[in-house]
Amino acid sequence: MLRIPVVRWGKPYESLETQKVVHFLTGEPIAEVDQANGAMVSRDLRKANQARELLRDIPVEDLISRIKTAGNLFANATLPLGNGTQTPDQFVHQQSATTGLPEQMCRNNMTKNSFVMEKIDTILDALTRGLDLNILARGYGTESRGIVVSYQCQSPVLGAVLPSNSPGVHTLWIPVIALQLGLVLKPGSQEPWTAYRVASAFQQAGIPGEVFSLYPGGHDVGAAILSGCRRAMIFGGEKTIQQYAGNPRVQVHGPGYTKILLGDDKVDQWEQYLDMMVESIYINGGRSCINASSVWASRHTEEIAAALAERLGPIEAKEPTDPSAGLAAFTVEGAGKAIYEMLQADLKEDGVTDCTAAYGPRLVEHERCSYLRPMIAHAKSPSCAIATKEFMFPFATVVKCPQEKMIDSIGYTLVGSAITDNETWIDELGSATNIDRLNIGPIPTNRLNWLQPHEGNLIEFLFKSRAYQIAESKLVHA
Amino acid sequence: MTTGTTSLAAAVAAAKQRLDQHTYETVQWHFHPSTGSPFWVAKAKELPFNPLTEVNTFEDLKKFPPFEDEWLRGGPIERWRPKGLDGKPTFVFETGGTTGIPKSRMVIEDHRIDYELFSETLPDKYFPRGTNWLMLGPSGPRRLRLAVEHLCQFRGGICFCIDLDPRWVIKLIKNGKMQELEEYKKHCIDQVLTILSANHNIKCMFATPKLLEGLCNALEERGQTFADTGITGIFSGGTEFTPQWTRFCIEEFFGGPPEVSGIYMTPTYGNTLMGLACSKPVTAADGYKISYYAPQPRAVTEVVDFDDTNRSVGYGETGRVKLTTLTKEFFVPGFLERDEGELEPPYETYPWDGVSGVRPFHRLASSTTVGVY
Fold first, then answer.
1. In chain A, where are the structural domains located?
2. What is the count of residue pairs from A and B with beta carbons less than 8 Å apart?
3. Which of A88, A134, B337, B338 has most Cβ atoms within 10 angstroms of its Cβ?
């Protein structure tokens, strides 16, 4: 069987205890994964500076070139993995088999990740607003306008506690190597695949293995990464967000509560935007934080909900290998049922209508997994609890709300696509601090422009802009 | 049959006979109105059998319903004290209590007896008699704190302790205050570093796995190693112990097995109800497997079927850990622990069943807050 070791600064480590990752439908073991422990992480982190020093010895231009090569290898090559190798097709099959995501979604996510590697120079150019990367590498330099600027790296490595259910999120940490920071990763227990394949592609492209640590393991491993790395990111639910709120060392990625807002000037033509709404709710199995979980409008909301239900309600759960499969399985025992029951409670509230009820049962239970078929609800008012709920399947509430009350009522919104030409409202939306990514116009919420920062700018998280004065004679013109 | 096997079989039979006799005597003591505790004397009236006439062997304890630790909440604590021990100075030790009323166990000298027996298992080479100890574990109304101090004194040493409130730690974990948890851990480790820097001839210590790793990490951050502390004997327990953690600790923090590093660690398993079970020596050759053996006949561990808790599983099979305490002070007939593990066969040192691979019971694991101190 494929055995995937813990990786400690590039060196494989086999533990006494291992965890099998199994096929979500059959229970067949796919791989045996060694397990780290928290103390191991804390101990290894004392050598974190070495990772940064190694990367700083490589010119930024070379790093960029190697990362681009890695992007191609990630998408197309047979790469070493544990005690074996992995082809791109095997990667897709293995990821689908252990996460419950249809293979076509895994393939799309693979493309996304390789895209970020292959376009790393353009992406960094956008994230740094055109800053010469040598200024980040050296710590200071002179901008084209002749001013000395300095960016102080806040940590020699980035730690990341990765999820099991969203293989698309890896795009967030991949650029870190180009910024000359090492990576300390805890791969998701069901999805070790991406982290290991990215690290393998990087190594094959000439990035030193000693700048990566991969620690599959339990909660203590995640806690050790978050407490030991001076900069770390974690993916989790609402509780995780609250836990790390206000902690400048930790960037939390959680539910998006992404929304589509229809302005009064456009809502009468709502049918024109139906495809965009369906895509925003349904793409990637509704699993992403950038999937819309609600649609807000002041009128026609019943008709919008009925039309969305008509489009999404009939969608069935299909085999993961079926190219038309659009729903991902819940692979944790009882998870699908628990979510379904939570929703049933919300649907009973006055003013809430279950619009997909007529399209057959939503909960589909198998022996080892379950699916939730798309659900659309209608809420007569933003005060209904369901109006601000988000779940990891294609689910959305169409909420009736006057336009003038919308911004105050929607709450936190990772992506807000506002369909309007009303300049006053556009200005108000632009000033609303509860909306992170703002799309003006019928842009599906899932279509991210990679040249824009996502949930906070990575550069601002990892580097601090600071004063740096240097005698003219010593100034290096970058 | 070899001589070794024959002698082991004889030892097992003798231990079984001793356990049956001890069970009989303990039940007589706890249920006889002249010596028994108010709790058990009253409880006997609810039982569908007469403990005084129908419990003659350990097997007969299955007639009792499972012991409910909820009975230990609230007072009066005196209802647990056997009449035969009236007038003896009495301790109360608590477990739980982060919220609500904690579970209480009254103790007269069980903790001393248990730890004097445990002392016999400690190799003098690594736990030198007459040297001082460090107690890196919970303070407050805990049995462990006084027991370790007694162990140290029994071996001729003086015990240094830290302040550690496990209830506060649990609150921090439950409220997700991980930064504060780290601060509190650091506060505990700082106390230890201060004691260790004060030239007290400390050679032995008790530590929970988490605090031991915290101490080792703190030392390494200062450019030192655990060996620099001069401590050679560690008795560890209190939270879950895994073979991987043990291996990591021995290989990386200690610098090798005892014969190389001069540092010996013995895992233990126990709680306020039972006392403590010792471990078979842990070695690399045995895959750092950790097997615990209770101090029979005063306490017994069984590994029972998850659904039929009166049926023991076979050797090597997995089941839930069931504890029985049979001392003059305390009688617990079959308490189902929040742990599971594999049943281990008897061996020469402990000719009775043991348990290995102890971990949180999988059906309760998600609701249990582990890694307390």
1. 2-254+455-473, 258-440
2. 47
3. B337
